[in-house]
């Protein structure tokens, strides 16, 4: 039985007598470089060659930097490639050289070193306990309850301001999650970098899809705020055969002659639901594959989403352009705890 | 003090060493550590790969900080990548493009940084698996397992925060998913999201905040944890695989100087060199193809970096329509369930050494590693965990699997959901049986030798296959492992059998009921007595002695 097993009871482990005694470390296998001075010389040369390749690699990398100043994309490609290859060679040369050196020329006799238990010896432990007791007695930590308890109190309270100070990381949520910038009469415009154009109902042919934002989005000056509003207001506009729509009578007036508009923000975790399948009228979110039935008020038919995509009620203004009847009647995007509370 | 005047340095290096030693007592340090023994095995390199990848991350990341600007203020791009010329974008994205196209070596450093991050997490994960399957987490190393676990989490966190910095379309959608997940947390979710983004998603703060985390908080955390991790390796000394001459009281290997300085030092250059070669020749994260972040567009077939895949997969595998309303409070279980399951999985990983220790009751120090087959239940549990993780991970690619293999997306997803539940069970069972079968084979070889394939006919007409006895070193490898027996629920001092004791007994029999004991001296001698002079094949195997337990 070993020393370790003696000190600590072995729990449920059993000790079976081994068939043979531990034969000890396996005998060293003699390498070619141990036997032959010529082979050792050869290894030495190989290692030197590898270190030499490293130097050449470094030179290639420097050349790659100098030879391809940025003018066009081909230069970017070339200096990335040649500096990378050069630096790679330079590093690999040193690496292979050093490892080859260790494996061929440095001793490969396994040696054994004694371990010690992690546990300090009894003497040290006794000494340590004594130090703690002395410190306790000298400071009166245990004896002077008032000091100790008030210290605990202070230690409990002092980090709280450090948390409170982060209170202004973000504003109160308020009802920002429940409203978008869609309003009655706001035109639906194409989502494009140049500031999209309004869409006439007559332009929306059956089966076509429009990525839409509210016209008043472009009035927002601040870039960050514009993205915030766009992140909620993005809409997908599709026209289907009116007879294909399974419309709730209460929402029949929300569509216009088969043209329907739904929030593009997935009710799962908020990715844009950008894929439309014409034949089945399914909308698919590319992030987590939540699938919504456009013909049936975007009911969830597959994937991890729970709520249907909110519908934007639309109508046509005097000039024939599509406009919103108002904001969404429910929050868009992912569910949160008070989403049903107004 | 006057005694050390005897050694007078005569060379420059000698002089320098003398100078340092007289001020820092480095001689003592070198005396203690210079010939420290490290065991040699390829699997011990996995942790090294992780550490060296981290060093590469520090080096390449420092370069990137000189050019990157963590601002979400809007600019019109004027760099040399023509397709985006004039486009409105954040300064963060524009400076990432500048690093890629207008700074020599910038793209190389971006790519080496990204590849190193992928390798860092991969190597750390494989290192964790090595530690798990060989039982290296047992006493006295349980705490180091925890440190390593937090290192792995920090590595994932470092990866994710860095992934989001270029503020491109792909990473922006990744952040949006994080935002959606945060909002699902009951009561505090929307506030956490507002705190993180400085208001509504995406806002104009998040990139700067992630930057602080990415270049300061997380690297500092990793450096501290890594220092503790390595310090514990020095305190405990490295484990070694079982083998002749290797015990719990010694460490067998090669000395630090010169062998490991050359091997491990050289290995750093190898890891760095391979990463550099990959970065030079393989594009990673071509942000210029994705465009600046815009909340409306998204590309199909998007994938997170590999180490986030399992979390994304968990989100995808949740069933439909899981919002539950309770007293006016909506609980989006479609998001909460994956979140809770992922956290529970991580908690089990972190707690495993403590669970196993409680079940075995083994309070000894273990420095000799288990061969995975010699701990069949642990290996089975590990395989179950790997399969669970792998299914979640593959779950993040359901759409790509469906399109590339022309399968039905819905069926792929449903199969994954089923596989997530039954896969680990099957993996556990198959692995455990395979381990036990391998152990039986080991016993067979230890007792009767190897099959040589040489069939001979004995004088009385019997045919036998000649078995060749293994040498003593090989034999030792086959028989040197620890053996456990299941425990029974025992009454405590008050004479009561507590629930805890019952659970422990049940777990103990789950672990050790089916077990193969190592060959004992008596068995070995018996087998060899029977076999001399020639081995006989008709001898019935003593199966019941080997397999203790039910059935």
Could you give a short description of this structure?
Chain A has 342 residues and is of the alpha+beta class. Chain A is built from eight helices and 13 strands.
Radius of gyration of chain A from CA coordinates: 37 Å
Number of H- or I-type helical stretches of chain A: 8
If you average the pLDDT of chain B, what whole number results? Answer: 91
Strand content of chain A: 5-15%
Structure report:
The complex is a heterodimer of chains A (342) and B (551). Chain A is of the alpha+beta class. Chain A contains eight helices and 13 strands. Chain A has helices at residues 3-7, 32-35, 37-67, 73-104, 122-139, 145-157, 159-164, 223-233, and strands spanning 13-14, 111-114, 188-190, 209-214, 235-239, 259-263, 275-277, 282-284, 291-293, 299-302, 311-312, 314-316, 322-324. The longest helix of chain B has 40 residues, at 409-448. Chain B starts with 11 loop residues before the first helix and ends with a strand. In chain B, the strands form six sheets. Chain B has a two-stranded antiparallel sheet with strand order 1-5. In chain B, α4 packs across α5 (106-133), α12 (309-316) packs across α14 (376-395) and α15 crosses α16. Chain B contains 20 helices and 13 strands. In chain B, β9 and β10 (463-468) form a beta hairpin. Chain B is mostly helical. Classes of the chains: A alpha+beta (342), B mainly alpha (551). The interface between A and B is large, with 115 and 148 residues.
């Amino acid at each position: 039985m070993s020393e370790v097993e003696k000190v600590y009871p072995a729990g449920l482990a059993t000790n079976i007598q081994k068939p043979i005694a531990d034969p000890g470390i396996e005998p060293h296998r003699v390498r070619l470089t141990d036997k032959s001075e010529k082979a050792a010389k050869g290894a030495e040369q190989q290692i030197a060659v590898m270190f030499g390749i490293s130097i050449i690699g470094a030179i290639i990398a420097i050349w790659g930097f100098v030879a391809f100043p940025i003018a066009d994309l081909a230069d970017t490609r070339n200096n990335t490639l040649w500096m990378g290859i050069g630096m790679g060679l330079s590093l690999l040369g040193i690496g292979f050289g050093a490892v080859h050196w260790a494996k061929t020329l440095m001793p490969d006799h396994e040696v054994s070193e004694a371990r010690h238990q992690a546990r300090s010896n009894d003497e040290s432990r006794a000494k340590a306990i004594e130090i703690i007791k002395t410190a306790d007695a000298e400071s009166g930590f245990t004896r002077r309850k008032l000091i100790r308890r008030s210290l605990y109190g202070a230690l409990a309270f002092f980090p709280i301001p450090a948390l409170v100070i982060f209170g202004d990381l973000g504003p109160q949520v308020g009802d920002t999650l429940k409203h978008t910038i869609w309003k009655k009469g706001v035109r639906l415009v194409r989502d494009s970098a140049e500031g999209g154009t309004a869409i006439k109902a007559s332009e929306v042919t059956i089966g076509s899809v429009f990525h839409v934002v509210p016209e008043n989005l472009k009035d927002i000056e601040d870039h960050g705020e514009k993205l915030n509003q766009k992140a909620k207001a993005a809409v997908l506009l599709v026209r289907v055969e009116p007879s294909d729509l399974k419309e709730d009578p209460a929402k029949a007036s929300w569509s216009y002659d088969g043209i329907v508009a739904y929030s593009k923000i997935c009710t799962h975790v908020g990715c844009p639901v950008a894929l439309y399948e014409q034949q089945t009228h399914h909308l698919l979110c590319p992030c987590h594959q939540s699938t919504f039935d456009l013909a049936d008020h975007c009911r969830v038919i597959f994937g991890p989403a729970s709520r249907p995509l909110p519908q934007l009620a639309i109508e046509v203004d005097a000039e024939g352009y599509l406009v919103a009847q108002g904001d969404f009647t429910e929050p868009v995007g992912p569910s949160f705890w008070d989403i049903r509370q107004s | 003090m006057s005694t050390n005047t005897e050694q007078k340095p005569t060379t420059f290096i000698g002089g320098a060493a003398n100078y340092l030693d007289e001020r820092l007592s480095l001689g003592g340090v070198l005396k203690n550590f210079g010939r420290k023994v490290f065991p040699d095995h390829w699997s011990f390199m996995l942790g090294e790969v992780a550490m060296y990848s981290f060093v590469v991350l520090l080096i390449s990341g420092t370069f990137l900080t000189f050019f990157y600007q963590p601002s979400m203020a809007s600019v019109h791009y004027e760099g040399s990548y023509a397709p985006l010329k004039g486009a409105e974008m954040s300064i963060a994205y524009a400076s990432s493009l500048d690093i890629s196209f207008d700074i020599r070596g910038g793209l190389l450093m971006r790519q080496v940084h990204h590849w190193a991050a992928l390798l860092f997490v991969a190597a750390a994960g494989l290192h964790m698996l090595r530690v798990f399957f060989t039982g290296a987490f047992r006493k006295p190393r349980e705490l180091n397992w925890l440190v390593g676990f937090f290192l792995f989490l920090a590595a994932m966190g470092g990866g994710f925060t860095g992934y989001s910095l270029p503020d491109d379309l792909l990473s922006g959608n990744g952040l949006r998913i994080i935002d959606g997940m945060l909002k699902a947390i009951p009561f505090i979710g929307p506030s956490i999201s507002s705190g993180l983004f400085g208001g509504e998603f995406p806002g104009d703060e998040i990139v700067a905040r992630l930057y602080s985390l990415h270049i300061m908080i997380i690297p500092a955390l990793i450096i501290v944890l890594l220092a503790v991790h390595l310090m514990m390796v020095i305190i405990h000394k490295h484990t070694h695989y079982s083998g002749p001459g290797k015990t719990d009281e010694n460490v067998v290997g090669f000395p630090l100087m010169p062998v490991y300085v050359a091997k491990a030092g050289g290995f750093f250059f190898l890891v760095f060199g391979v990463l550099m070669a990959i970065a030079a020749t393989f594009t990673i994260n071509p942000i210029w193809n994705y465009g600046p972040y815009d909340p409306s567009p998204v590309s199909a077939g998007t994938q997170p970096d590999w180490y986030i895949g399992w979390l994304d997969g968990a989100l995808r595998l949740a069933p439909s329509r899981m919002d539950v309303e309770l007293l006016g409070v909506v609980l989006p279980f479609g998001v909460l369930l994956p979140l809770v399951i992922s956290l529970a999985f991580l908690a089990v990983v972190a707690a495993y050494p403590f669970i196993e220790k409680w079940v075995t009751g083994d309070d000894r120090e273990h420095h000799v590693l288990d061969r995975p087959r010699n701990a069949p239940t642990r290996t089975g549990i590990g395989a179950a965990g790997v399969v669970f993780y792998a299914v979640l991970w593959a779950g993040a690619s359901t759409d790509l699997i469906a399109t590339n293999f022309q399968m039905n997306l819905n069926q792929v997803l449903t199969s994954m959901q089923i596989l997530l539940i039954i896969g680990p069970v099957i993996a556990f069972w198959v692995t455990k049986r395979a381990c036990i079968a391998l152990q039986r084979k080991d016993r067979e070889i230890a007792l009767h030798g190897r099959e040589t394939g040489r069939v001979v006919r004995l004088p009385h007409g019997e045919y036998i296959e000649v078995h060749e006895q293994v040498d003593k070193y090989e034999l030792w490898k086959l028989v040197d492992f620890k053996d456990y027996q299941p425990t029974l629920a025992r009454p405590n001092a008050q004479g009561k059998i507590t629930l805890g004791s019952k659970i422990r007994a049940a777990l103990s029999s789950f672990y050790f009921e089916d077990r193969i004991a190592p060959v004992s001296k008596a068995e070995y001698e018996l087998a060899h007595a029977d076999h001399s002079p020639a081995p006989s094949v008709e001898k019935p195997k003593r199966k019941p002695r080997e397999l203790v337990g039910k059935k």
